[in-house]
Amino acid sequence: MQYGKLYGVGVGTGSPDLMTLRAVQVLQSVDVIVIPNSSKYLRSVAWRIAGPAVGPAPENQERLNLLFPMTKDPEIIGPAWATALEEIGQRLEGGKSVAFITEGDPMFFSTYIYLHREAQARWPGIEVEVVPAVSSYTAVPSVIGSPKADGQERVAVVPASYGLEDLPAIFALFDTVLLMKVSSIMPELVDILEREGLLERAVYVSKATMEGQKIITDLKSIKNDKCDKCDYFSMVMVKRGKRSGVLFGESKAGEALATS
Amino acid sequence: MQYGKLYGVGVGTGSPDLMTLRAVQVLQSVDVIVIPNSSKYLRSVAWRIAGPAVGPAPENQERLNLLFPMTKDPEIIGPAWATALEEIGQRLEGGKSVAFITEGDPMFFSTYIYLHREAQARWPGIEVEVVPAVSSYTAVPSVIGSPKADGQERVAVVPASYGLEDLPAIFALFDTVLLMKVSSIMPELVDILEREGLLERAVYVSKATMEGQKIITDLKSIKNDKCDKCDYFSMVMVKRGKRSGVLFGESKAGEALATS
User: What is the total count of domains within chain A?
Assistant: First the structure.
């Protein structure tokens, strides 16, 4: 069977002009754009980003809104995916090209990953293309003005809501640590950073590049602002910078954080 | 003094259409584009990427080629930077906006980082904007079709040419490890991967998204292809995937690598 082509298209971190030329071109030319929604009542974040750059639908393009509730409960997410795969499958089997959009990059903590993993099993031989995008861990260093890595430096990207006990080992091995999903564990995280002597070298960013972007350097001031639902858009960057480049001494490490 | 605005603009990993809309817009509107060249005899890689998307220079736009030899010798790189900072400074002091372009993302192992760090000291109060871009560690998972992280997974990005002895500890703590600058240490790296039982879970990619892109799954076949000068464009991705999402069992980890 000749299936339509499947695209996983990253639309970047939040600002429509951080989309790639390729993402815009693909979304303007496919037969179907799949727009994932986390709730019936909120507009899709990915489409809020992509819509302005992509513009009105060309004739014959379908924009298919599907529901993926934000939950880890397999009893809820399982049936949602069953419906989604059937809807998407109908279009692919009809020879239509389908682009599934995601915030950030499609290969990094995205809803698309499940579709990507299922595709070859369900539609054998299907052509799949992933359009990479600017990801939150790339945008955060830009918005706070602090280089992520240089010289011999190592970078770790860690979902902080699991395995907090490994953080000291990770801080010892890495120069820059980007902690994702921090909102629900801020009290514990601030304690760990304080014990490790890294509180001054940590910066909190939420909604990087989006409207409402916040950059906070005094982490103690937000230690008790728990926010279980805003994880997706919050990150803490910790920069030790022990191994920066030949032109910089150790003393310069972290200076950008201190002044930004 | 009112300086012109300084931009660090990432042009992405190699394919011109992976530039962001913002990068193109900035490069089409600034007074000066600084184009870094690693040699007098080769065209700038960053400009080979950006040129096609940016197009011919608008009237009054200067395209300033500067030389940054690819070396760690401070006796060579120091004077090159002195010249570059003087040339760039003249334009900024004249109120001109200047965009310095880099392959990949400006905050990640780029020539721009040194300029970024020097800017506030040399031109106090200068406005600086960094335009983030698709980086090699983002593009590689897309081109090999293997998700970088999902669920509880952790990602490490490590320049492999330093501290190889730390790799076993890093493999134990992380699910996906992206090893950069691998070309000069392939024999040692293949030995380590074999000892760790990770050879089957490693993929080599060079020139991701560029013309001449190579994806090699049998790392032993290139173990002895040392290439000291092509480091910038080569990477090995190792995926253990122990902590993938709620919808995937452990057994599925790494399957995308095995089939791609």
Answer: 2
| Chain segment B70-88, per-residue pLDDT in tens | 888 889 999 999 999 999 9
Nearest CA in chain B to A50: B21
Partners of residue B139 in chain A, C-beta under 8 Å? 132
ipTM of the complex: 0.90
pTM: 0.90
**Domain termination site, one of A131, A165, A182:** A131
Min Cα distance B224 → chain A (Å) is 24
Task: Determine the Cα–Cα distance for residues A66 and A56; give it in Å rounded to an integer.
Answer: 19
Residue from the list A25, A130, A134 with its beta carbon closest to the beta carbon of B20: A134
Whether the per-residue pLDDT at A240 is higher than 50: the answer is yes
Subunit contact A256:B117, Cβ cutoff 8 A: yes
**Residue B47: which domain range?**
6-131
Nearest C-alpha of chain B: how many angstroms from A25? 9
pLDDT tens, A161-193?
A: 888 999 999 999 999 999 998 988 899 999 999
Residue B233 near residue B250, CB atoms below 8 Å: no
Phi-psi region at A141: left, alpha or beta (left = phi > 0; alpha = psi -120 to 50): alpha
Q: Which ranges constitute the DSSP H helices of B156-227?
A: 167-173, 186-195
